[in-house]
Amino acid sequence: MTHDTLAVPAPRDGAESSARWWRDAVIYQVYVRSFADSDGDGVGDLPGVRSRLPYLAALGVDALWLTPFYVSPMADFGYDVADYRDVDPLFGTLDDARALVADAHGHGLRVIVDVVPNHTSDRHAWFRAALAAEPGSPERARYVFRDGRGPDGAEPPNDWESVFGGPAWTRVPDGQWYLHLFAAEQPDLDWENPEVHAEFEGILKFWLDLGVDGFRIDVAHGMAKAPGLPDVGHPNQVEMLGTAVLPYFDQDPVHDIHRAWRRLLDTYDGERVAVAEAWAPTPERLAAYTRPDELHQAFNFHYLSAPWDAAEMRAVVDESLRTAAAVGAPATWVLSNHDVKRHVTRYGGGETGLARARAAALLTLALPGSAYVYQGEELGLPEVLDLPEEFLQDPQRLRGEGQGRDGCRVPLPWAGDEPPFGFGTGAATWLPIPPAWRSLTVAAQEADPDSMLALYRDALRVRREHPALGDGRLRWLDGPDDTLAFVRDAPGGGAVGCAVNMSGRTLRVPARGTPLLASGPVQIGDEGADLPPNTALWWEIEER
Ligand code: NOJ
Asked: Is the separation of the CB atoms in 529 and 488 below 8 Å?
């Protein structure tokens, strides 16, 4: 399958765009279920998030992204929405959502909420109506129902596979099949149907009117399917995600939907934004989601997926900056989220993983653009790899695709010497917190100036205060192989340097100036800085 080259409209005007908060915002991802529990049921909730806003304000982030808290049977922990305009009782009420948004604004924090447009829950009123209605009815036309192939239509309509494993089709009693690119409890909507467009415009307006500052768009590369729903012609399609063009992802017409949403966002005051969760085969195609008349940002999963290797990391950074600049959008940087193994563990785990994660924090927060912080990364939490079998609940694993995502969703440890570490008032939590996390609690790290939390707070403060950091460009410096070194020039003079040693031995990097922050013990002299393995340094270069 081929794609036309996507047209690139002129970039936004530079001076105008620098005033836009989202171009260099640090956005903290709150996985609501695992952040803070106010009512002792072992599951995080909106009042819990509200009670911890002072922590987030003190951390120094600019905005929160709240994962779905809408009415849901929780087959995919809220990414299966049954009512987009109400809060699930597990997480609180609509008034709690209003109070949270208002309080966050009072703390100077913006709030982004998730919107899930590719699919609904199978308990959504529309899907119930579709099941009760006849094949060919208007109720079925909101979803992707088709007759099957083969004798008696007993074979799925095509060979598409669910991202969570197995066929992407489920048969209903009257013999038709419906499409679900994720779990069977998440039927795909048919975005060829104007009713679906109107419904989502209404949903976006509902939350914008309530005061949210924007949206994280789930599966923003879904929605539009290739005409005729052609076969892929290939098994193990999950391995092709993000690297190949599939007839159900990243289809050009999806951009029309994002353009319409941008027009809607622009009718509101206060720079309301949208960030795409989009998996595209190339950085160029990813950047297309952030053309000037589309969404503001897209998650940079190419950066998240890069190994701990200076040459590969530099290539990803260059490519990300180049493709974002071509459409006038800010680059974004993300190391972890609720769908992937936490990066302390990805980078090797133990002391090595932690040292690399500390260095990666300084690298990420020094790069030009906007950065995402997944809850708990500021505490250096590792993936929990040994959760007892009876707790494992992720539908991805249950449908047979991979180890599942439970291990990165374990509730946050706040304080105290034993689970639940102040997460809530009840003894049990929906996933157990490892007793070994007693040294990783917020309270323990607040008392330790060398903790990961202290590093994040310091880095976010310097980033906020120093005009060289945030939006802008970078200049690479020459340094030894296995290192990255670059300078961020401030618009009015002065600069900040950042160097990272990604090797296993101490290396000298060309850092000349006043040290600002380091992720480990660094020796600085007139000839540069000696960086130990897996260590990063920020230094200040005075205006000459
Ligand atoms: C991406 C979300 O981040 C993930 O958690 C979810 O399972 C899928 N989209 C399906 O909605």
From this structure: no
| CA–CA separation, 113 and 101 (whole Å) | 10
Catalytic residue selected from 80, 218, 250, 383? 218
Phi, then psi, of 478 in degrees rounded to 5 = -75, 135
Q: Which of 478, 485, 516, 522 is nearest to 500 (CA)?
A: 485
- Please tell me the predicted confidence (pLDDT) of residue 83: 99
Note the pLDDT of residue 7.
Answer: 46
Q: Do domains 20-118+194-459 and 119-190 have the same CATH topology?
A: no
Residue spans of the domains in the chain: they are: 20-118+194-459, 119-190
**79 CB under 6 A from ligand 1?**
yes
For ligand 1, whether the C-beta of 218 sits within 6 Å is yes
Q: Is 139 exposed, middle or buried (0-12, 13-18, 19+ CB in 10 A)?
A: middle
**DSSP 8-state symbol, 113:** E
| pLDDT at position 17 | 37
> Both tokens of residue 466?
């120093």
pTM: 0.96
- Residues with Cβ within 8 Å of 312's Cβ and at least 6 positions away in sequence, in order, are 306
Q: Which residues contact 425 (CB under 8 A, 6 or more apart)?
A: 37, 39, 40
pLDDT by residue (tens digit) across 90-115? Answer: 999 999 999 999 999 999 999 999 99
Ligand 1 close to Cβ of residue 289 (< 6 A)? no
**218 given a catalytic annotation:** yes
Q: Give me the CATH code for the 20-118+194-459 domain, please.
A: 3.20.20.80
Q: Is 148 buried (19+), middle (13-18) or exposed (0-12) by CB count in 10 A?
A: middle
Instruction: Choose which CATH entry (3.40.50.720, 3.40.50.150, 3.90.400.10, 3.40.50.10470) describes domain 119-190.
Output: 3.90.400.10
- What is the tens place of the pLDDT at every residue in 314-367? 999 999 999 999 999 999 999 999 999 999 999 999 999 999 999 999 999 999
Residue from 74, 79, 223, 337 to probe ligand 1 pocket by mutation (most atoms less than 8 Å from CB) = 79
Q: Which residues of the chain have pLDDT under 50?
A: 1-18
